[in-house]
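[retry 2/3] Phenylpyruvate tautomerase PptA, 4-oxalocrotonate tautomerase family: previous attempt timed out, resubmitting with same input.
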Amino acid sequence: MATRAGWITDPAAVIAAVHSALQEALKIPESDRVVRVIEHPPSHFAVPPGRGERFTLVEISMFSGRSMSAKRALYQAIVRNLGALDVPPLDIKISLHEVPPENWGIRGGMPASEIDLGFKVDV
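[retry 2/3] Phenylpyruvate tautomerase PptA, 4-oxalocrotonate tautomerase family: success.
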């Protein structure tokens, strides 16, 4: 996720908010934790008109195959969880990048399509 620098006092709480939403909506395991917070100087991060200093762009690369209901649940969980950290709902933009499993090299360079992930993707 990317945001303007200066308002995040507890990056671990922001990471936990996003990861918790991923677990809840997409049913990923706790151990599948890759979340990063990137803070930009305000002069390096233009935001849409009418949005505040806490505007946050959440971009998620994930395996393709999730249902529309799972995506809706994810959007709602992210907005709820970041809202608890005082990010206004209208200041949150979420973009999903769905990548087929064969285009992920994981666990030592294996295509994700060829290994048991340990969780379901088709939720």
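[retry 2/3] Phenylpyruvate tautomerase PptA, 4-oxalocrotonate tautomerase family: The radius of gyration is 15 Å.
[retry 2/3] clearing retry counter.
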